[in-house]
Design goal:
The structure holds 2 protein chains of 2 kinds. Chain A is of the alpha/beta class. Chain A has helices at about 45-50, 85-95, 105-115, 130-145, 160-180, 190-195, 215, 220-225, and strands at about 5, 10-15, 15-20, 25-30, 30-35, 60-65, 70-75, 150-155, 180-185, 200-205, 205-215, 230-235, 240-249. Chain B is mostly helical. Chain B has helices spanning about 15-45, 55-60, 70-105, 115-130, 140-160, 170-190, 195-205, 215-230, 235-240, 245-250, 255-275, 280-295, 300-325, 330-350. In chain B, helix 3 crosses helix 12 (about 280-295). Chain B starts with 14 loop residues before the first helix and ends in a 6-residue tail after the last helix. Classes of the chains: A alpha/beta, B mainly alpha. Chains A and B meet through helix 2, helix 3, helix 4 and helix 5 of A and helix 1, helix 9 and helix 10 of B.
């Protein structure tokens, strides 16, 4: 099973330090890890650093991967200006680094990714004509179609309505278990993190301030200090932890 | 709980849709190739002496079956001109297509980056003052000057593009600045040059295929044949570039490196074309847009489609330049703009789907 470990990871834009000394235990496949933190905490930078798009000190250790490109990344930008159908844009993500000839297996993978996210009916639509939420689902399909062992999702639910937020996170939770995939998703909704993610890491001003199981990490004290809200966490009628925000500090 | 997003309730296989899309595009490419062949034959048939299409096809397939004079006229005089129209049309259109792709700008073309303006300035130096930028045979001073200036322009933009913090918008602005600089220099040359030289410069800037020869054709064709596979191997990456740098990067593309590489390759294509036939502005802008309307932006179809559209437009332009005023060959640049732009506007306005 794949594992990902971050060891004293740093990153900077010019002279501005964005990440400093981020160190985590090994995250194993088969689970979802939420990446939490206020705006400009360095969450997107951490993803870019893991992918190697940014240079810096420290090490990203991936062990147990079976493919050459084990990591797929869904950025916040959904990139929808090209004259391409949804089907083509997902195939395009699958084919990067491969030959120009599309194999039947590639089409099967595209079908599978679209079906997993229930957007097969969008296949023939031009990506420029989609709503923000649809674009976000297509973007998720572009990441999934690469059959990754580690999937990095930057705010995957930010443009989705509540129903689709819950559905997408449920699907991701299932896929993580079924495919033994490690999913790291930055989320602004702490309630979603509590409900759907197994572990959480919290960034503030480029530093990792907490890391562990989500229930251990997300506490009223952390919410007050990092997110500046007074909140309680109580079990709901189904026994799941539930976030109740009372006021901004 | 098995979650399901509400976007659709069933997951039909889309592979069939994609296969039919590919088949339709292959058919369009075949149709364009056929139209190109027909246009080439008509172009060869037209001139001071007109021939039937049957005679032209016979001369092409079995040259010894036609009279020596027909063979000389078709193979030695008209063929280089007609083929140059195809090669230059394809080259300019590919250059425009890739500039639009890497700069994510629908207005990008060899003109936008000042490459054509630079070439015009180089040619004008030779035409007005006999200045040769590098030692060259007399017959080649004008194209070589044009080529040198076009590449210097592209090189300047390339060097400036490598600076930290330069965005694609900055590159387009640099190109526009180049256009204005060279336009001013051209005006200066025309101010000081003789009346006869000014006429020659003006004629050159209108673009003309009539100076095409076999050696020039081989050079232009060689460059096209060299660059086309280099661009084709980046097919998936170039398509991803149209999703924006962030998205392309997330798919494993290095947008900055790819942009610089493609900029050099297409500058070379444009420079060679402009050097041999003068400035033909319409093709590099519109050829790719027509290809995009017909074939979308998957580079496996868009790249050959752009080449075919560009070649076809210039070939048809060559035909029209001979028949609009019988006995006179109107400069090709004028024809392509005058006839092509209304056609292009019709296509864009009548097309219901997004064209950019």
């Amino acid at each position: 099973m794949v594992t990902l470990t971050l060891d004293h990871l740093s990153a900077h834009y010019g002279r501005r330090q964005i990440l400093s000394e981020v160190t985590t235990p090994a995250f194993a496949g088969g689970q979802i890890v939420s990446l939490l933190g206020p705006n400009a905490a360095g969450k997107s930078t951490l993803f870019r650093r893991i992918l190697g798009l940014l240079k810096g000190d420290g090490e990203v250790r991936i062990e147990g991967a079976t493919s050459e490109r084990p990591v797929a990344y869904m950025p916040q930008e959904t990139g929808a200006s090209a004259v391409l159908t949804v089907y083509e844009s997902v195939l395009l993500a699958r084919m990067q680094g491969r030959s120009l000839k599309v194999q039947p297996e590639d089409l099967r993978e595209v079908d599978r990714a679209l079906s997993e996210l229930s957007i097969a009916s969008l296949g023939e639509r031009d990506i420029g004509n989609l709503s923000g939420g649809q674009r976000q689902l297509v973007s998720a399909a572009q990441a999934l179609v690469q059959d990754p062992e580690i999937l990095l999702l930057d705010e995957p639910t930010s443009a989705l309505d509540l129903h689709r937020q819950i559905s997408l996170l449920s699907i991701l939770q299932r896929l993580a278990r079924e495919r033994e995939m490690l999913i790291i998703a930055s989320l602004h909704d702490i309630g979603h993190a509590l409900r759907f993610t197994d572990q959480a890491m919290v960034l503030e001003s480029g530093q990792l301030v907490a890391c562990g199981t989500t229930e251990q990490v997300v506490t009223p004290t952390l919410l007050r200090h990092i997110f500046q809200v007074d909140a309680r966490i109580e079990p709901c009628s189904m026994g799941r932890p539930q976030l109740i925000v009372e006021a901004a500090v | 709980m098995t979650a399901k997003l509400a976007t659709d309730s069933v997951g039909p296989s889309q592979g069939g849709f994609y296969r039919s899309l590919v088949a339709r595009r292959q058919l369009i490419l075949a149709g364009l190739t056929l139209a190109l062949g027909l246009s080439l034959c008509v172009d060869l048939a037209l001139g001071p002496a007109r021939y039937g299409l049957g005679e032209v096809i016979t001369a092409l397939l079995t040259p010894d079956d036609v009279s020596p004079s027909v063979k000389v006229i078709l193979w030695e005089i008209r063929m280089p001109v007609a083929l140059m129209a195809l090669v230059v049309g394809a080259s300019l259109s590919i250059a425009g297509a890739q500039m639009q792709t890497i700069l994510s700008n629908p207005l990008a073309s060899p003109f936008t980056l000042g490459i054509s303006a630079g070439a015009s300035f180089g040619a004008a130096l030779a035409l007005a003052f006999g200045v040769s930028l590098v030692p060259a045979a007399v017959d080649y001073i004008i194209p070589i000057n044009a080529f040198v200036m076009a590449m210097l322009t592209a090189g300047t933009i390339h060097l400036l593009s490598m600076r930290r913090g330069v965005t694609i918008e900055t590159i387009v602005l640099l190109g526009i600045a180049m256009v204005f600089i060279f336009n001013s220099l051209m005006a200066l040359i025309q101010f000081f040059a003789s009346q006869q030289a000014v006429s020659a410069v003006v004629f050159w800037t209108m673009g003309s295929l009539t100076k095409a020869t076999w050696p020039k054709l081989w050079i232009a064709l060689g460059v096209l044949a060299f660059i086309l596979p280099l661009l084709a191997r980046h097919g998936w990456a170039l398509t991803a570039m149209r999703l924006g740098d962030a998205k392309a990067e997330s798919l494993g593309v290095n947008p900055r490196a790819l942009r610089l590489e493609v900029l050099v390759l297409v500058s070379l294509l444009a420079a060679i074309s402009v050097a041999f036939v003068g400035t033909i502005g319409f093709i590099g802008l519109v050829g790719p847009h027509i290809a995009r309307l017909l074939l979308g932006e998957d580079q496996r179809f868009f790249l050959p489609g752009s080449a075919l559209c560009g070649a076809l437009i210039l070939s048809v332009g060559s035909v029209l330049s001979k028949i609009i005023l019988p006995g006179t060959i109107i400069p090709i640049g004028i024809i392509t703009s005058l006839v092509g732009i209304p056609f292009f506007l019709f296509l864009v306005l009548s097309h219901k789907k997004a064209s950019w």
